[in-house]
Write a structure and sequence with these properties.
434 Repressor (Amino-terminal Domain), 6-stranded parallel β-sheet, 14% strand, alpha/beta, 4-stranded parallel β-sheet, Rossmann fold, 3 domains
């Protein structure tokens, strides 16, 4: 038979103290006599006492848990960022609860309600609704209702009209500008854009930079086919069969670049000999394909730390208004610079004068 779990009454009796003294020790009050504290803590160890976290949550109004909603943990970008968030949360004394929505809006709503009901202390929002170019007002209203009672930090996205605690983002538009500038210094003036989705804000940010810097690109150099390896295969196939070829192509992410690279190999197009190719996100895929991809790194560790710091500030600071500023008018936006990691997928083109 299983032994009955010890209670606080057992701890108090074993330590020879009152129940109220044992309770103060358990709940971290500093006013307990050190000798009595030591007796209670020794009794807890000897009886193998485990505190009731649900009861402590009700007592302290804190659960020491953080919710995280993201669209696809199988996507290396999200898994790499979540890993850094989980490590950072643990270092700060918090446990992460993941809501992986598998890019399903109904499940995203369910996780939002469930995490709020579980009384997480704060919520990190990645992708999904936060990257929707035309968010549903009803979905925004649901997040707004949660954010009125719970600090919410949006990472690499936004929730228009929602009183978020902060918006933390890596400079993806700047990363695309830097990549195009690198190609320019290597002699590339004819550059294609592969992948992305017209209904995802982060894709549109990168695409706007491309259209501004390469305004006269032929239509077949601009292949907005999606965010997956298959989308990269489709984009490269269309590029190779569409007419004249550029000397380089920037991809929306490393998965698209991997698919594009596979088609280039199949069609006998040398990378970077005939066509230079770059990725984005600097996930592990960028290092294992051949040639390894030059890519844009989000500074994942710094991005995660900034998001967690902003969330913890939101737990203890003033509430935010509907545009992400605190009530003193101080902006609550944190921008993290990206950086280019150069590998072997880009060559220098010698241009004739």
């Amino acid at each position: 038979m299983r032994r009955k779990a010890p209670t606080i009454y057992d701890i108090a009796a074993h330590a020879g103290v009152s129940v109220s003294t044992a309770s103060r020790v358990l709940n971290g009050h500093a006013t307990v006599n050190p000798a009595l504290r030591e007796r209670v803590e020794r009794a807890m160890t000897e009886l193998r006492f485990r505190p009731n976290r649900i009861a402590q949550t009700l007592y302290h109004h804190r659960s020491h848990t953080i919710g995280c909603i993201l669209p696809d943990i199988g996507n290396p970008f999200f898994s790499q960022l979540f890993l850094q968030l989980e490590i950072g949360a643990f270092e700060r004394g918090y446990t992460m609860i993941l809501g992986n929505t598998v890019s399903t809006r109904a499940l995203e709503r369910t996780y939002l309600r469930t995490l709020a009901e579980r009384q997480v202390d704060g919520l990190l929002y990645l992708g999904g609704l936060a990257n929707d170019a035309a968010p549903d007002p009803a979905d925004l209203q649901l997040v707004r209702e949660v954010a009125e009672h719970l600090p919410v930090v949006v990472v690499n996205g936004e929730l228009p009209g929602v009183p978020i605690a902060a918006r933390v983002r890596s400079d993806e538009a700047g990363g695309m500008r830097d990549m195009l500038a690198l190609l320019h210094t290597r002699g590339h003036r004819d550059v294609a854009f592969l992948g992305g989705r017209a209904d995802v804000t982060t894709s549109l940010e990168k695409l706007r930079e491309y259209d501004r810097i390469v305004p006269h690109a032929p239509a077949h150099w601009r292949q907005v086919t999606g965010l997956t390896i298959d989308a990269g295969r489709e984009a490269m196939t269309r590029l190779l069969t569409g007419g004249n070829l550029p000397t380089a192509a920037v991809c929306i992410n490393d998965l698209v670049a991997a698919g594009a690279l596979a088609v280039a190999h199949e069609r006998g197009v040398e990378v970077p000999g005939t066509l230079s190719l770059s990725g984005f996100d600097d996930i592990f895929v960028a290092q294992v394909v051949s040639p390894p991809l030059t890519s844009v790194n989000h500074n994942y560790g710094l991005l995660a730390r900034a998001a967690l710091d902003a969330l913890l500030d939101g737990m203890t600071g003033p509430p935010a208004d509907a545009v992400g500023h605190d009530l003193t008018g101080t902006p609550r936006q944190v921008d993290i610079p990206t950086e280019i990691v150069e590998r072997a997928s880009i060559r220098t083109v010698t241009r004739r004068v």
